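Task 17 of the worksheet. Students: predict the tertiary structure of the chain below and write it out as structure tokens. Keep your answer in the requested format; marks are given for formatting as well as content.
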Amino acid sequence: MSQEKKNERAAAPELSWSEQQEIRIDHLRQLEAQGLNPYGSRFVRTMSAAQVKERYQYLEPDQEAPEEISLAGRITAWRGHGKASFLDLSDLSDRLQLYFKYDVLGEEAYKRLALADLGDMITVKGNVFRTKRGEISLRVHEWQIAAKSLNPPPEKWHGLSDVELRYRQRYADLIANREVREVFIKRSHIVSAIRRYLDNLGFLEVETPMLSTLAGGAAARPFITHHNALNATMYLRIATELHLKRCIVGGLEKVYEIGRILRNEGIDTRHNPEFTTLEVYEAWSDYQGMMALAEGIIDTCCREVLGTHQVTFMGRELDLRPPFPRRTMDSMLQEYAHISLAELRQPGRAQEKALQLGINLGNKEHTLAHLIDKIFEATCEEHLIQPTFVIDYPIELSPLAKRKASDPTLTDRFELFVCGSELANAFSEL
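Model answer:
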């Protein structure tokens, strides 16, 4: 291994990004000069890193398995010791230690290690063994660079911490933070579990238009575009609701869509202009049926994906095992805002209460619905940590919901809250 290479690995944090990239470009050129393709072709892996660790648990220290296997992944750590080097290879499943030895690889293949860098994708073949310290490792007999990395990896694998960079460069976040990869994988499994659950209940998954001549189904500012062939102004959908309801009208009694929604509004920790929703519509049901459905979806995801109903989120321990408590909005307002819905409906009382709570109303006029919503948000939502259905919303907040037969000032509507945030919303349709 060249002295330059040793210095680059040992002191990389002291080198500028451009200096590190220059070294990597030089390594690329040297590989090409040797007639080697630094961006290789198809490679057949026989195992993943996780499978290796699971299959060869039986090995004793210094014991080696007889069969040769092949792996591929990214170099994420490097420890060199003269004519022996230890590299960490990471794939989607796990990390595995690789052992490169001069007298096993031969001079040419071992010297070529000097042209490899952290972040490079490599392929290896060899035999699995357990080190004297007890770590399952691979003794490499053959290796190649499959994809040369010209950019240094983020923060040398110690975890990408810059929040803005993490969200702007999700690929870098995925490389640097294994827990982020696990979230992506779990999300995919959760979506699959939701589909299986709904499909087994007889729901049909449909796809509704992204473009429409009318932005409806929610109160939000749309993205506006122009359809050249029709010479018409079009809107990107802000909800899937209207077209799903048309499916119900057309006789499809149970439908759902997991679809992208676009809203031309602000960005913060709880809002994004592009996001995914699950919308479900069922004929012959009501909001009670939708509560049971919501509980069933969460229960299924916990059992099939997480294997537990006990979840830690934002430092809080949550119990997601249904059934979930039902709380009326009025009872919560009385407990935490010390005011009832009847009092808030008195002329001027809602605005007065909002000002007492320090809610910024600005100079514009506010509807009673908006004021009730803001007061509930300011006083009650922080107490809704464990999954809870808030039910019996006032008609002012639910113009499309069916009135309660027992109290026409309220509606058959619920919102499901977890950790102070709304997770689901449904109501019996008018």
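Marker's comment: The longest strand covers residues 64-81. The chain is about 30% helix and 25% strand.
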